[in-house]
Design goal:
- By secondary structure, the chain is an alpha+beta fold.
- The protein has two domains: 113 residues, no CATH class; 92 residues, Aminopeptidase, CATH 3.40.630.
- The protein is 27% helix and 34% strand.
- The chain has an eleven-stranded mixed sheet with strand order 1-2-3-4-11-5-10-9-8-7-6, sandwiched between helices.
- The termini are far apart.
Length: 245
């Protein structure tokens, strides 16, 4: 498996981990594609599936997704940074899809991790009290009680000002790699170096726990931050949804 294939698998499996907090959300291979979706349900509606493809034609992605979907779905079409996206755009438009946005796909090989001055306290979340504060500040559950132990698949970090969280990020172990999710700093505390300090500590812990590759998808604003801590963009994810009938 090459770097791109490894990064896509880490994305699929890591994304599913946090989506499984309320109901199992699975990463599965269907032909040449990955699909991330709910495990079978006895009640309730299925959440939206996402079909992930690289090096597969839009026509094949569309055909496979429509054949195997359980309900609503979107497509994550990934192209390398040296690959043109024009044929993808033209083909998905012809198939009746709407482009919802694009996200850089970035990786860090964890060989060199810079150190930064910590402008505020940066800590891993290991207590119920701090976990509750982070979950409340984020307005959705970032961490469960079982993730407070030292050796767990999910590690949550928080930036604290006067013992209150003003930023947070989490890392999920995936097969000797890690997926970074939900990095956020409150607007009034940005431009102080908090995000890069959190990321650097997270990456050092990733490496200490045996990870050899860190993966994330980024907003275009975040894409300006992550190279400062050593991430490099290898691809772009294009999120497509079928137009409603």
């Amino acid at each position: 498996m090459g770097l791109m294939g490894h990064a896509i698998e880490v994305f699929a499996r890591g994304f599913c981990y946090t989506r499984s907090f309320t109901h199992p959300y699975l990463a599965e291979r269907v032909g040449q594609l990955w699909v991330v979706r709910d495990a079978p349900r006895k009640r309730g509606e299925y959440r939206r599936e996402e079909w992930i493809g690289h090096g597969v034609t839009p026509e094949e992605i569309d055909r496979t997704a429509r054949k195997h979907t359980r309900g609503r779905f979107a497509v994550c079409a990934i192209h390398g940074i040296n690959e043109s996206d024009q044929s993808l755009r033209d083909s998905f438009k012809a198939l009746g899809y709407r482009l919802g946005g694009t996200e850089p796909v970035m990786v860090h090989k964890l060989r060199r991790i810079p150190r930064f001055e910590e402008p505020v306290e940066i800590t891993r979340v290991t207590t119920e009290d701090l976990a509750e504060l982070v979950n409340k500040a984020a307005r959705f559950r970032q961490i469960l009680p079982e993730h407070l132990e030292i050796d767990t698949p999910l590690r949550q970090y928080a930036a604290l000002v006067e013992d209150k969280p003003v930023g947070w990020v989490r890392s999920i172990d995936v097969e000797r790699a890690t997926w970074c999710a939900d990095m956020y700093v409150m607007p009034e505390f940005r431009r102080r170096g908090i995000a890069r300090a959190m990321m650097a500590q997270m990456l050092r812990d990733d490496r200490a726990h045996g990870s050899e590759l860190a993966v994330l998808t980024s907003s275009h604003t975040g894409a300006k931050l992550y190279p400062l801590v050593g991430y490099k963009q290898i691809a772009t994810l294009m999120l497509y949804t079928p137009k409603k009938s």
